[in-house]
Amino acid sequence: MMFGRLLALTFFFLLAALGRAAAPDGATSGEAQTEDLNIFRRDFLEADRSYSDAARREAEHRLQILEAKAGSTEAAAFAVDLCQIAALADNGHTTCKLPHADGAPVSFLPVGGAFYVITASPRNSDLLGSRLIAVDGHPAAAVGSALRSLHGGVAAWRDIEAMDALARPDLLHALGLARATGDATYRFQAGDGHVIERKLAPEPQRKDWVKLLPKDRMPWPLQDQQRAFRWRDAPELDAIVVEIRRNLDDKSGRIGDFLAKVEADRSRLGRKNLVLDMRFNTGGNFMLTRDFLTAWPARIGAQGRVFVLESPFTFSAGMVDVAYLKQAGGDRVTLIGDAPGDRLMFFADQRQVSLPHSGVTLQYATQRYDLQDGCRTYGDCFVGIAQPGSATGTPPTTAAAIDQGKGRKPLSVKTLDPDIAAPWSVDDLLKKAAIRGWPPSRRQ
Q: What domain count does the chain have?
């Protein structure tokens, strides 16, 4: 295959993009926790459409248990319990953001079910690139399993959502993984196989923290991270490479205008193929790109091919984009990389709820997305992908505006799993980091 194996990716920018809840006010009284539970039930649980009947009954049962213990549950444990109840929806867009606090002086990237250190304070720089193997004696597999209880969706997306919690001893303690709330002993395996064991306590993140892949060694897909979309010429592939990180207009212009110009430039340059990099596209408004992507394979022509790069960070509107392109282009569209971050059936279009005392921020999902069967059997889908003439889950005024404007285009794709598997690996990333004398010598 002319593209070879994908470079391993670091996703430093997504640590911030995924967001965090505000810090709690410290209230753990029975009155405060009861108020948060009431808001959780009324404004979140009853409003979210993604829970199955069985999951909703289990959620209500667990809320009753928490109510009986109100005032006697520590703040971190209370927040963790709420997120575990939210995760019962098993829907990637139904989210629970834990209150922010300082964490251990490292940050992690999930790759293939394992967690690797990608950022560290200077005194812990020898941990960069190492793989987590245990926390306070609990093997990494057990740690990952426990962290996945905090979020819904597929395992890879749950791991992405768990990145911050892994560096928080207080949350690990609430999950039964750390002996204390103030620190934890982490065990790592470095790239050369040697094991490092280190007790780490929370500290504020500073600008001097070091990254596994510094800015001057970033490959093109990781450069200009503030830009929502960009492109480059790739004559060696007889292609242009287009990267869409967010389905949004940004300060450089409208995404629709960008796509039209890119296609004009592809034609002007005489490039036969298109490489569309969606590995970082975690969402936005797919109605801004839908019509262009649906028409793009025909514009490229019968002699050209479309290659779409995807990853577990390909999520929400990013997945819908890929589905429209695949539906329009069929076998001429080749998916490369790793499976995207959600199933073909999910609920999205979230609304936010903040709990005043625990500091937890929740997002409940309001509309169904059926990318596999075109919403043929459902009447609660977002109007833009619903069957013509069917009921939808979209508010009537919005639905009427879309029907009169862009209209409905149902989706029906068999799978979005890659045609050519290129799962992530840290090996290539470590080789890149080896330039200029990396890694540093071991700490004594």
A: 1
What's the mean pLDDT in 143-155?
Answer: 98
Domain-located, residue 136: yes
Question: In the prediction, which pLDDT does 270 show?
Answer: 97
Among candidates 171, 158, 152, which has minimal Cα distance to 55? 152
- Name the nearest CA neighbour of 269 among 222, 234, 223: 234
- Structural domain includes residue 388: no
User: Does any domain span residue 274?
Assistant: no
What are 76's two structure tokens? Answer: 């971190």
| pLDDT band at residue 429 using 50, 70 and 90 as cut-offs | low
Q: In CATH, what number is assigned to the domain containing residue 118?
A: 2.30.42.10
Which pLDDT score is estimated for 285?
97
Q: What is the pLDDT of residues 170-229, one digit of tens each?
A: 999 999 999 999 999 999 999 889 999 999 999 998 999 999 888 877 889 989 989 999
Tell me the residue range of the domain where 156 lies.
Answer: 106-204
Q: What angle do CA 197, 198, 204 make, to 5 degrees?
A: 150
Residue 90 CA neighbour count, 13 Å, CB half: 11
Tell me the average pLDDT of the chain: 91
Location of structure tokens 């937890």: 360
Calculate the alpha carbon distances from 327 to 59, 211, 242, 301, 414 in Å: 37, 39, 19, 16, 9
Q: Characterize the bridge pairing of strands 114-120 and 333-337.
A: unpaired
Instruction: Give the Cα separation of 125 and 383 in Å (integer).
Output: 50
Cβ within 8 Å of residue 142, ≥6 positions away: 177
Is-cis flag, bond preceding 235, omega within 30?
A: no
Q: How far apart are CA 26 and CA 129, in angstroms?
A: 36
Inside any domain, residue 192: yes
Exposure letters 224-252 (e unless 16+ CB within 10 A, then b): ebeebbbbeebeebebbbbbbbbbbbeee
Identify whether the C-beta of residue 312 lies closer than 8 Å to the C-beta of residue 416.
Answer: no
Nearest to 287, CA basis, from 348, 338, 231, 334: 348
What H or E segment, with its residue span, contains residue 274? strand 273-277
Read off the pLDDT of residues 83-127 as tens digits, 9 standing for 90 and up.
999 999 999 999 999 999 999 999 999 998 899 999 999 999 999
Within its chain, how far is the Cα of 91 from the centroid?
12
Token pair belonging to 181: 């709330």
